[in-house]
């Protein structure tokens, strides 16, 4: 798990922390590395800092909390994966002069569980229209995008569509394997708190690269369900009541 993500998890659970307090929780990380990572988070607008006398305090911003919520919402998507048989497609043709917006939009589609079908045609099994429309409006690319809802397909058409999806199953399974390995070791420690919250957040970040196929279409070697079952065991360890 990246130090940036660890800091997000740590600060999300606090009002604000002074740099030396942060270092105590970030075992093995130097103050210089932590300060540099906090600087990147501040530049993104996800963390805010406050100076008081000779000390600097850091806290999660509203934008940072929104980012965390967006990531954790993917877990709820996995839990609610009851498919109605339809698809949502997004087709875009964003000019080169808007390359930055185009790259941001592609990343957003990936994180929402869209898979590339061909060219700039992306597809998902889930109704993500509302959040896609918000992103389109924010990036001001309305005139370069189209959103189309596709009703149920025949079995043969559906089979062809699934064959054409461009996604890296091997890379995804490798990330799940790593999560499962680390998570199983953590469960044996019977610890609570920050390490568990980091694992839950890491799991949500892995889901960003998972199209979350309906159960009936998941590949035979897919490790997502095993990872979810382990996450369910880790989640109660996030807080000790």
From TrEMBL:
Report domain Transcriptional repressor PaaX-like central Cas2-like positions.
81-154
Q: Which GO terms describe its biological process?
A: DNA-templated transcription
Q: Where is the Transcriptional repressor PaaX-like C-terminal domain?
A: 167-237
This protein's source sits in the domain of life called Bacteria
- Enumerate the InterPro entries for this protein: PaaX-like_central, PaaX_C, PaaX_trns_reg, WH-like_DNA-bd_sf, WH_DNA-bd_sf
Segments passing through the bilayer: none
Pfam families membership = PaaX_C, PaaX_M
> What protein name does the entry list?
Uncharacterized protein
Q: What is the species of this protein?
A: Candidatus Berkelbacteria bacterium RIFCSPHIGHO2_12_FULL_36_9
Q: What is the lineage of its organism?
A: Bacteria, Candidatus Berkelbacteria
